[in-house]
From TrEMBL:
Organism: Natronorubrum aibiense
Transmembrane domains' residue ranges: 38-56, 68-87
Protein name: Uncharacterized protein
Cross-referenced InterPro entries: DUF8028
Keywords: Membrane, Transmembrane, Transmembrane helix
Disordered: annotated span: 1-25
Biased composition (Polar residues): 1-15
Length: 93
């Protein structure tokens, strides 16, 4: 005699969706939607910042406050380069 076992029905979805999973997907979509504009802004900030700190270099870095401003702008420029380095490489222009 064949052994009859009840079939498991794995294809049936639960009646209520998992709210944590929905929240995670929503968060991922939100973060993905910010990637393009963030890279765009960072790319152009990295392009423009040298024009801002160039006058500081022309003035000289003898004053500690000017030196601090210059180093802060330089660090911001490096950060913007890091964030915006992928802009335009994936078909965006």
């Amino acid at each position: 005699m064949p052994n009859h076992t009840p079939l498991s029905n794995d294809s049936v979805t639960p009646s209520s969706p998992d709210p944590d999973r929905d929240q995670e997907q929503c968060t991922r979509r939100f973060i993905h939607s910010l990637k393009g504009p963030t890279q765009f802004l960072s790319f152009w900030v990295a392009i423009a910042l040298p024009f801002v700190y160039l006058p500081l270099l022309m003035q000289g870095l003898g004053d500690p406050q000017v030196t601090l401003v210059f180093l802060t702008l330089l660090a911001l420029n490096v950060f913007a380069l890091y964030i915006g380095h992928g802009y335009g490489s994936d078909g965006e222009a």
